[in-house]
Amino acid sequence: MNPFREFQHFWFVIAAFLVMSISTSILYFLQVGTQPIELGGMLLVNGIMIIVLMISYRMVTEVFPEKILVYFGVGLFRRSIPLSRIKAAIIVKNPWYYGWGVRIIPGGWLFNVSGDYSVEIQLTDSDRILRIGSQTPHQLHEAIQAGLRKRQ
């Protein structure tokens, strides 16, 4: 089985945080208004934005012979799914209102940063599902299926 690895960048979040950080810095340097932002306030806001950005700027999905690993940003938030716990995997289209990020959806969880398609994983020990968003859902699905075939 060839290892599968997909990096998806959360461009919307990156752009939003970049705009907010630049705006905060400009407001500090221009000293706009009757109560301009102070240095501490600017550093606090920009520091928080950098931390949130580092946690959420990308999603990485990896399929190994024994597990699937999904993590965001630098890896503080991660989910590992042993292939032995997977009953089935199918490609599904997410409704637009499921959104992006880590979400509770009907019946389980969604990990997604862009796009409409996911691989839905049904677990053997639970009625819950897990959807993993992908720009290449057919390749992700095939990597999971190859891992499941190898385990049998």
Can you characterise this structure?
With 152 residues, the protein is of the alpha+beta class. The mean pLDDT is 89. The strands form two sheets. A five-stranded mixed beta sheet has the order 5-8-9-7-6, with helices on one face. Strands 1-2-3-4 form a four-stranded antiparallel beta sheet, covered by helices on one side. α1 packs antiparallel against α2. It has helices spanning 11-30, 39-56, 137-151, and strands at residues 4-9, 58-63, 67-72, 77-82, 86-93, 101-105, 108-112, 117-123, 129-133. The radius of gyration is 19 Å and the shape is elongated.
What would a concise description of this structure say?
With 152 residues, the chain is α+β, with helices and mostly antiparallel strands. It has helices at residues 11-30, 39-56, 137-151; strands spanning 4-9, 58-63, 67-72, 77-82, 86-93, 101-105, 108-112, 117-123, 129-133.
List the helices and strands and how they pair.
Blueprint: E1 4-9, H1 11-30, H2 39-56, E2 58-63, E3 67-72, E4 77-82, E5 86-93, E6 101-105, E7 108-112, E8 117-123, E9 129-133, H3 137-151
Parallel strand pairs: 7-9
Antiparallel strand pairs: 1-2, 2-3, 3-4, 5-8, 6-7, 8-9
Helix pairs in contact: 1-2
Q: Low-confidence runs (pLDDT<50, min 5 residues)? A: none
Number of helices, counting only DSSP H or I runs of 4 residues or more: 3
The whole-number mean of residue pLDDT values reads 89
Shape: elongated
Order of helices and strands: EHHEEEEEEEEH
